[in-house]
Amino acid sequence: MEGGLMHLFLVVLGATLLRWCVSLNSYSGAQTPPVYGDYEAQRHWMEITYNLPITEWYVNTTNNDLLYWGLDYPPLTAYHSWLCGAVASVVNSTWVSLWDSRGTESYTHKLFMRSTVIVADLLVYIPAVIVYFTLTRKLTSTRDRLLTSLVVLLYPGIVLIDHGHFQYNCISLGFTLWAVIALEWGHDLLGSVAFCLALNYKQMELYHAMPFFCYLLGSSFRTKTENRFFKLAKIGLVVIMTFALCWLPFLYDKDLVLQLLQRLFPFARGIYEDKVANVWCSLAVVIKLKQLLSLDSVIRLCLCTTLAALLPSSLDLLLRPTVERLKLALVNSSLVFFLFSFQVHEKSILIATLPVCLLLHERPFECMWFLLVATLSMFPLLIKDGLVLPYIGTTLLFYTLMVSSLDMGPVAIYLPGSGTTESPSKQWTPSLKAVMFWSSMLGCVGLSVASLTIMPPTNLPDLFPVLISLYSCGHFLLFTIYFHWWQLSCDVEPSKSEVKSRTTQKSNTKKKRL
Amino acid sequence: MATSFWNVAATFTFVKLLLIPSYHSTDFEVHRNWLAVTHSLPMNKWYYEKTSEWTLDYPPFFALFEFVLSHFARAFDPNMLIVKNLNYASPATVVFQRLSVIVTDFVYIFAVKEFCFHCLKPARRGSGSDVFTHPSFILAVLLMGNFGLLIVDHIHFQYNGFLFGVMLLSIVRIYQGRNLEGALYFATLLNFKHIYVYIAPAYFMYLLRNYCFKSSKKDGSVIWTSFSFLHFARLGTIVVLIFGLSFGPYISMGQLPQVLSRLFPFKRGLCHAYWAPNFWALYNVADKAASIKGLHSGFLSQSNHTNQASMTGGLVQEFQHAVLPSIAPVVTLILTVLSIIPAVVHHWRYPNGPRGFLRCLILCAFASFVFGWHVHEKAILMIIIPLSLLALEKKRDAQVFLVLSTTGHLSLFPLLFTQAETPIKICLMLMYTIYAFITVSGLFRIPSGRLRLPLLTKLESLYVIGLLALEIYCSLLHSVLGLQQFYPFIPLLLTSVYCAVGVIYCWLMFYWLTLTEKYVESNVKLE
Model confidence over A413-462: pLDDT tens digits? Predict the structure, then answer.
């Protein structure tokens, strides 16, 4: 395609535009002293890392009050905060001055914070998505590849949390994506490094660790070109080296390492925070596990169920390690973690949405359905942050672009506006999938509208957040089963005829739409 | 194709939704005030009310439009309808006002659909199955995604989308040969916003030549005996009826002089706060250059010069030119009329159907922009939008369109000066321009050559790329070099002057293209 570079530029501009539009809105904890929210947390980390010696970053000292947004992410986050803090001190040193800068909020400071996220996104996540879809063999034309990248880049979930609520998920998710790309290229070592970086940016990436482990182990055992154990040792060494490099400033002191680990895994915080669409939170409507069992046994229960649920997809991947399966196993593993593990945030669903985005071109309809429900599950949080308007705008935009650029399969005729040229008999035979999808969407819209307009009864103040999390949890459970079925039933190598038939199907539907 | 069209429309509507929290100018307060005035006062006080400095200065239909809107506004936040609540902008008010722009934009979307589906005769059809290269699709994106409309309406805040929708609809009806409807829409448009009177000569000439005179000779000249009094009477009735509906109540109340004095405030200066990139920008600069030279050689006194400097500070005020003669409103009027005459006469002699009419309309808009009194930079949209309609039909028109849209859009940059909106305007502008260049040149199958942009000559390419350099200087280098303190007006001045050169070039080019077009009988046939 001529001018492919310019088209690529258009995609990047579109992604940037959407992100900046979202960033005009409010953020987590805006004007809510004394605690504020994630925005202040990130700013506070810049303040701490910029002003204090590295050994004090994770330790409670006279200058570092860990009870006020103490650093609880791995070292790469801390280094990144330090870098941003250094830049901030050049722009306006009051933004990061120790103690005095607490609760800093201003027009220019918001601009600065927002730009740090945009820059991170432009450097890590956006190029990763574009490279990933450019390499995808199943998409035949450059335009399809770019369009799919654009759709994925406009996925509201990640954009709303990073550029609205305020976090840097684009970095950890971006590194994970680079790891998948490297593995697809056959560079297992580079992939391991990239994933270690992701893990060292945000410990939540552990949700993805099992599939990577299984894939690397499985493929090392199957390698024919070199010694299996040598290959495994190489990967192990690279992983240890990467970790060691990231942790280098802390390694000389055992207590410091222990303190850091304690900060990263705060089991004392409880089984879940707020209303999360996972199994334990949903069960709590009926049984309050927290009151029945001790903390230790709750942790043990979570651990056991998570591991048990992880087994099928992990074993499958271990025995048949292909990148195709890796992506599915990433979905399954992160969903299982989200549903069953201990201490889950509603934002953690983003970890599952990333691999689903990678499968978007394969089964657009099912993936879109999941992605839409995943954004709904974060709706209570978005209401709290004052992000209702961008939620509506980005979701509708995402949906429209999905429907107009990807082949929605048999259900497409039921999506509004499409299939006007279809024969009427075909149009009015409701397929089961379509009925399910639309009733599910009706529920989503109903719940969203209700939580915005209806005042909950005084004795049930959390009625709608609970309803939304129950509703999404039900969906997630079903989707977990669906994605497991997909992983277990998919061919090792998709046959060429399948690829061919899909592309012809696609061009047919495009013709029809004209 | 219909599906794709509505997908495009939906996409842009949702983008507009995302722009709701962005910065809005004082025009937001202007329209809020009008809502309050029309809602809480009886009709006979609308044009007398002056609590706010932003008094009602649009024609009566627009006042009625605000009156209708105000009833919906009450459901959002009744406090915005209190006249004394100056600068009131609660979140509900912002959402309501923004939504009112987004919803009334559907008039524009409908008009775009009508044009794309019924009036467009592209140079080449797109490749069969591919929606994205389909000319109707491209034109729909170019019109609905027009950079200027998006930022002026959905960031700066105005109702141009709705108004251009009515204008486009009247053009569509004229393309379809439904002349009376076209006239009806245009008369209505004039009573919404009187700035469109600048393009009225084109309507007048077209309807006179093609509707009142019913036939032409083989070479295109008029057959005098074919004049139809019936057609003339019909037209006249429609126009009188619409104006009667609009101004009638005020005439009966004896308020017409007051209304007119609101509509035509000649107390404003030659140039708007930011100089629109027109002839007067060049004139002012020439004057400035001459005055500096005069100062150096001792012809002028210092006091003259300080007076001079203030005019570039960005205030709406009258000022005296230092060296060149000062311009009275009547001079601008004469120049505008003089520069419209060749276009209108050519249209009389060679009535090339609706397309000839559209060219005449664009030339009228050009003339008023280049020579008009107190021209806003936003008025460039009155040229760019109709010109888009021609861009996919002829190669030379496409060339003018690409240069003019890029230049004109860049000249709108000073309108959004807030830092938070800067990335938005840059992204949107680049997206629109790149999309326009890719798709329009793709349609004509013109590759970009070495050292030049597709469809453009080397000089034009250089000019367009110069715009990029200009913007980098104005928004970045100027303050980095530390010149902001001493010469704060330089970026605005450079932008106006540089863009003025481009606009005037496009005008002359388009004039030449139109005047060299001979009478083609097939053009007159209607769709």
Answer: 444 444 444 444 444 456 778 888 889 999 999 999 999 998 888 888 88
CA distances from residue A409 to A406, A432, A434, B425, B492 in whole angstroms, order as listed: 9, 13, 11, 37, 53
Within 13 A of A302's CA, how many CA atoms are on the CB side? 26
Give one DSSP letter per residue of A225-253, joined into a string: SS-HHHHHHHHHHHHHHHHHHHHGGGTT-
pTM: 0.91
What helix, strand, coil percent values describe chain B, rounded to 5?
Answer: 70, 0, 30
Q: How far is A420 from chain B (nearest CA, A)?
A: 8
Residue from A159, A147, A133, A136 nearest A400 by CA:
A147
Chain-chain contact of A108 with B95 (C-beta, under 8 angstroms)? no
Are the beta carbons of A420 and B2 separated by less than 8 Å? Answer: yes
| Dihedral sign for Cα atoms in the order B342, B343, B348, B352 | positive
From chain B, pick out residues whose CB is under 8 angstroms from the CB of A510. 129-131
CB A150 within 8 A of CB A15: yes
Reduced to 3 states (helix: H, G, I; strand: E, B; else coil), residue B181 is helix
The string of pLDDT tens digits covering residues A146-181 is 889 999 999 999 999 999 999 999 999 999 999 999
| Dist. CA B94–CA A24, nearest whole Å | 14
C-alpha closest to that of A207 among A237, A235, A176: A176
* Chain B hits for A514, Cβ within 8 Å: 1, 4, 128-129, 131, 134
Euclidean distance between CA atoms A121 and A172, whole angstroms: 10
Q: Which residues, other chains included, contact B122 with Cβ-Cβ below 8 Å and sequence gap of 6+?
A: B135, B136, B392, B393, B443
- Classify B213 as helix, strand or coil: strand
Lowest-confidence pick of A99-103, A437-441, B128-132: B128-132
Mutation pick from B4, B5, B8, B14 vs chain A, by most beta carbons of A within 10 Å, is B14
Q: Which of B7, B20, B129 sits opposite A400 (nearest CB)?
A: B7
Chain B: nearest CA to A19, how far in angstroms? 10
